[in-house]
Amino acid sequence: MARRKKVYEGKAKILYEGPEPGTLVQYFKDDATAFNAEKRATIEGKGVLNNRLSEFFMTGLNAIGVPTHFIRRINMREQLIRAVEIIPLEVVVRNVAAGSISKRLGIEEGTPLPRPIVEFYFKNDELGDPLVAEEHILAFGWAAQQDLDDMVSLALRVNDFLSGLFLGVGIRLVDFKIEIGRIWDGDYMRLIVADEISPDSCRLWDIETGKKLDKDVFRRDLGNLADAYTEVARRLGVMPQGPTGVTKPTLIN
After folding, report:
1. pTM for the complete prediction?
2. pLDDT confidence of 241, banded at 50, 70, 90?
3. Nearest alpha carbon to residue 144 among 209, 99, 189
């Protein structure tokens, strides 16, 4: 039988056409990138961990009424998702100063912010995904004002959910990035959380030690990335044994 048609390939995932109209198969790769793909590596088992962790978070969000594109996991590296029109913005929620906000504003990394801050970045690798203001978004037609209000509301609800979840296992949610897409039910349009939620898209620090359990381990050469992600999965009870011995499955036909 023929392999599925590839729809899109990004730095960490591949999208294939789904078995039914309006669906896609999302495949998680073992590739790790940083600094807009200037730094690259292959981390065995990373795709398995991110698939299972993203399934865990998306399922939890669906259960509390935060809509996502996730339908079900297919196997250790693939999940069935709804096809959405991605809004060309990365939505970042920050609880603690780290990364670019520390550099931009001169705030010491690790400083708690007075409230969660929502930022928008224009999705364009060639430009380095620049920070943009709501005025840019409205002027260039990337989203309407109601869309922006709904995106902020969705992002803050995701933040509440994830912060509590991680706090319960001794992890501080420093910040995270989500993407949001549009879907239509007839003439009615609604926004849902898309892409993935995993240690690739979050900053996660151990509350007691400050140890980093996210992609900063790779960015800053702080140790083994798969070990850090496995620790997150273990604490959450997602994959108690980790991805040891797992190999890439054949794509579904």
Report:
1. 0.91
2. low
3. 189
The pLDDT of residue 240 is 55
DSSP state of 127: G
Q: Is 77 exposed, middle or buried (0-12, 13-18, 19+ CB in 10 A)?
A: buried
Q: How far apart are CA 110 and CA 52, in angstroms?
A: 28
pLDDT, tens digit (0-9, with 9 covering 90-100), for 186-231: 889 999 999 999 999 999 999 999 999 999 999 999 999 999 999 9
CB-based burial label for 176 (10 Å; 0-12, 13-18, 19+): buried
DSSP element (H, E) containing 96: strand 89-96
* The two three-digit tokens of residue 74, written as one number: 């297919």
Domains and CATH numbers, the chain: 6-84+224-236 (3.30.200.20), 85-206 (3.30.470.20)
Q: Could you tell me the sign of the dihedral formed by the alpha carbons of 214, 218, 223, 229, in that order?
A: positive
